[in-house]
Amino acid sequence: MDRLFENMDRWRHLPSYQLERRVDVFFSVFMKDVVEAHVGVALKPVIVPEFPLRHGSLDPNLDTRTDTRARDTRNRSSKVDYLLVSQDLASAFFVELKTDMRSRDPKQDAHMRTAQRLGLRRVLKGVCTLAECSTEAGKYRALLGELAALGLVESESTSRFRLSGADPTLSIVYVQPVRSGVSELVIDFAEFATRIESSGDEIGRIFATHLRRWMTEPGA
């Protein structure tokens, strides 16, 4: 395990190496507990990765326009790294993971803020729309099954789902190397490391050591 993290320590400085894609599985092991401690809200154990934000749901004009660009764009989606939901269904959290401060994407940030403003129910309707038109129906059934486990949708049949009565308030949390100096919910790597060290988990201890190294910019 040490060798694996040492490789990532070196390789993250290389031009084409994307650390986020390699370490997200380690973050996912601890994400629920760390976010729960940071926001002070009890969370459900189910974490939904790569949660889709349908473009036509974020911009209703795309659903009403008839031009080719709108038709091609409305059922595309941007992905949020993780969706977490509170035990009482009063709160939901988009969690965006960045291992390099320079990889923050203003367009992605804007999509999440729009989703936050419109509300999670609007976003979930978009997921149901994507499921109906996608060529990957089986994968969307699996996604809707995860959302049903969270209490956000209900199954009408093996292939059809409807929204539940839940209407949680949506917040955005960034997990990133350092704080950005703006008014955002941020869990920096120092906090993440401290919290997973206290778990007593051996992998957590090793991961925490390397997280602190990753607070410096790649290539520095």
Describe the protein.
The chain has 220 residues and is an alpha/beta fold. The chain has a domain at 39-187. It is 48% helix and 19% strand. The protein contains 10 helices and 7 strands. It has helices at residues 2-11, 19-39, 55-58, 61-64, 68-73, 106-118, 120-133, 137-149, 189-197, 202-213; strands at residues 48-54, 77-85, 91-97, 153-155, 161-163, 169-176, 185-188. The strands form 2 sheets. Strands 1-2-3-6-7 form a 5-stranded mixed β-sheet, sandwiched between helices. A hairpin with a 5-residue loop joins strand 2 and strand 3. Helix 9 (189-197) runs antiparallel to helix 10. The longest helix is centred in the N-terminal third of the chain and has 21 residues, at 19-39. The radius of gyration is 18 Å and the shape is globular.
General shape? globular
Rg from alpha-carbon coordinates: 18 Å
What is the helix/strand order?
HHEHHHEEHHHEEEEHH
Total helices: the number is 10
